[in-house]
Write a structure and sequence with these properties.
With 185 residues, the chain is mainly α. 63% of the residues lie in helices and 6% in strands. It has a single domain, classed as Four Helix Bundle (Hemerythrin (Met), subunit A) (Up-down Bundle), CATH 1.20.120.
Length: 185
């Protein structure tokens, strides 16, 4: 199992490296340059008035991010349902498929965030989001080492780390004009 996880991690790193090398070699603007000057304006509703919101990324990237975020929201909902469905005293065998699927979804979402050319104004928030997603992945990976009596403590840690990751991810969502998430497990 550990060898399989290590092989998957190496494959992801190689894919990211390959994409970055291809991206740099193609003569495109590169990840460190600002995105094209086009902006997307979205209507955002407040309590009593309509205001205009200008996203800091172009419309193509915003659509791409919305797709990534929607997929991750679905995975969060499925994980929550799976964890709740396991009952109040779940076994590791009951939780293993839920944790495995959620770990794959967190890893995919974190990986997908690298495809967006985030502006300099969002770099701190993006780095914080990556750090929290990485911490969440670490906790999910640690599931394979917990004992049968350790599931309650591990689930508590999962909920705490998921809340911290959700807070970091909500900063990104707010910056691009999306509502906060409440679906993390």
């Amino acid at each position: 199992m550990a060898a399989l996880c290590l092989a998957a991690a190496i494959a992801v790193i190689l894919v990211i490296w390959g994409i970055r090398m291809t991206h740099k070699d193609s003569g495109s603007s590169g990840p460190n340059l600002p995105p094209p000057s086009t902006t997307t304006t979205r209507a955002a509703s407040s309590q009593s008035a309509q205001t205009s919101f200008v996203a800091p990324i172009d419309s193509t990237q915003l659509t791409q991010y919305e797709q990534y975020a929607a997929g991750f929201q679905t995975a969060n909902g499925a994980a929550t349902k799976g964890l709740d469905g396991a009952g109040s005293a779940p076994t590791t065998a009951q939780l293993a498929p839920v944790v495995g699927a959620y770990r794959a979804a967190v890893n995919l979402y974190d990986f997908q965030l690298h495809f967006i050319q985030w502006p300099a104004s969002m770099q701190t928030a993006i780095q914080a989001d990556h750090a929290q997603l990485t911490a969440l992945l670490g906790l999910l990976q640690s599931f394979s080492t917990i004992s049968a009596t350790g599931t309650s403590a591990w689930l508590s840690d999962l909920h705490n780390q998921a809340n911290t990751a959700q807070t970091a991810d909500d900063v990104i969502r707010k910056d691009v004009g999306l509502p906060s998430s409440s679906s993390f497990p």
